[in-house]
């Protein structure tokens, strides 16, 4: 499937199609998140090694590494918040479609029943 095409794999009985642009946005964000998580894994490894060495220079370096780790975590949280908002907007936009059916197959305005 070309990234510009509409993605119909998430279509339900109401025939709703998720826009290819939304899928592209999700993919791009998930790639960024994965890259940050990979960086974090390397930072944590280095922080642990520096901590174990107890060398003053290594411990001082950890201050900067921990700041970088915290900034990466903030960026991941921001990316997930943006993804959530994007998805919510898309679902809200789909509420007004002609089928009146949401992604989960409920009719617009119908409450979700919790199992239990």
From TrEMBL:
Keywords: Biological rhythms, Nucleus. It holds the Pfam family Elf4. It is found in: Nucleus. InterPro entries: EARLY_FLOWERING_4, EARLY_FLOWERING_4_dom. Residues 89-116 are annotated as: Disordered. It comes from the Eukaryota. Residues 18-96 form the Protein EARLY FLOWERING domain. One of its GO terms (biological process) is entrainment of circadian clock. GO terms for cellular component: nucleus. Belongs to the EARLY FLOWERING 4 family. PANTHER family: PROTEIN ELF4-LIKE 4. This is Protein EARLY FLOWERING 4 domain-containing protein. It comes from Digitaria exilis.
